[in-house]
């Protein structure tokens, strides 16, 4: 279980971007994190994972996150990533091995097999020796998922993984994540396409600075909760919103 206790964050010390968000998630699960632009979804993850300063604490199976870092993987928003960094696809995926390796340890043959296996899972094995800068957005996203796979993390956080990627990549990634769930992992996905919410997520976290709702999707994906988070203008194209 992962428990977030009073997670808060402020960038200027005056305005709260995230305020006292508390909830727990039992694995396995695929959890959607939704809310309007600027609601603090990314900030919540960064503060909860101690990537930025903030208040509150996160525990993994009762232990402070600092002691269980290897079990947590995070893929930041694409806009935060430097694609021009000169490394190959294989090297990029192998970075997932580093939480368990000291920097002076060599990557072994067995490690490279893990990398190859992960690349095969995301259907990117032919791209192993390409530079990451040569990939499409969807291909790159698949590489980042492969990196979390070699890390073998139990809790995986993905910030808007489907932005600007093609339907095939989205489907490949969702199938892979369902497989991760079957292995007992919990996957958190910041997502903005509300029409896919019911199909993709077992549980939902609805945020707008504060926690508006958290629970099984069929209980939380309601008009009342969405109006509270997004205001009255919310429109869910093709999706079913419960009363
Ligand atoms: N590095 C930063 N410095 C200052 N303010 C920031 C920074 N990052 C985010 N903010 C502000 O914090 C608030 C929450 O932003 P955040 O990016 O967490 O929202 P979000 O829900 O992920 O938004 P989106 O859906 O648009 O990605 C916003 O008001 C944003 O302008």
UniProtKB/TrEMBL annotation:
Residues 2-234 form the ABC transporter domain. InterPro entries: AAA+_ATPase, ABC_transporter-like_ATP-bd, ABC_transporter-like_CS, Metal_Ion_Import_ABC, P-loop_NTPase. The keyword Transport applies. It comes from Tetragenococcus koreensis. GO terms for molecular function: ATP binding; ATP hydrolysis activity. It holds the Pfam family ABC_tran. Belongs to the ABC transporter superfamily. This is Mn/Zn ABC-type transport system ATP-binding protein. The keyword ATP-binding applies. Keywords: ATP-binding, Nucleotide-binding, Transport. It comes from the Bacteria.
């Amino acid at each position: 279980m992962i428990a977030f206790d009073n997670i808060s964050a402020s960038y200027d010390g005056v305005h709260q971007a995230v305020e006292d968000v508390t909830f727990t998630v039992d694995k396995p699960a695929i959890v959607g994190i939704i809310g309007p632009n600027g609601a603090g979804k990314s900030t919540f993850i960064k503060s909860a994972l101690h990537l930025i300063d903030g208040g509150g604490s996160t525990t993994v199976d009762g232990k402070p996150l600092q002691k269980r870092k290897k079990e947590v993987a995070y893929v930041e928003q694409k806009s935060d990533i430097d694609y021009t960094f000169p490394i190959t696809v294989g090297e990029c995926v192998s970075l997932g091995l580093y939480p368990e390796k000291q920097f002076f340890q060599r990557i072994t043959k067995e490690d490279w097999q893990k990398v190859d296996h992960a690349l095969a899972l995301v259907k990117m094995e032919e791209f192993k020796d390409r530079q990451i800068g040569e990939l499409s957005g969807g291909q790159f996203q698949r590489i980042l998922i492969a990196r979390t796979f070699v890390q073998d993390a139990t809790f995986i956080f993905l910030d808007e993984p489907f932005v600007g990627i093609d339907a095939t990549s989205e489907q490949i990634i969702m199938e892979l994540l369902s497989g991760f769930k079957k292995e007992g992992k919990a996957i958190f996905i910041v997502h903005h396409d509300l029409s896919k919410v019911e199909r993709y997520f077992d549980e939902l976290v609805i945020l707008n600075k504060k926690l508006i709702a958290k629970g099984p999707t069929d209980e939380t994906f309601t008009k009342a909760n969405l109006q509270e988070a997004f205001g009255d203008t919310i429109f869910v194209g093709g999706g079913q919103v419960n009363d």
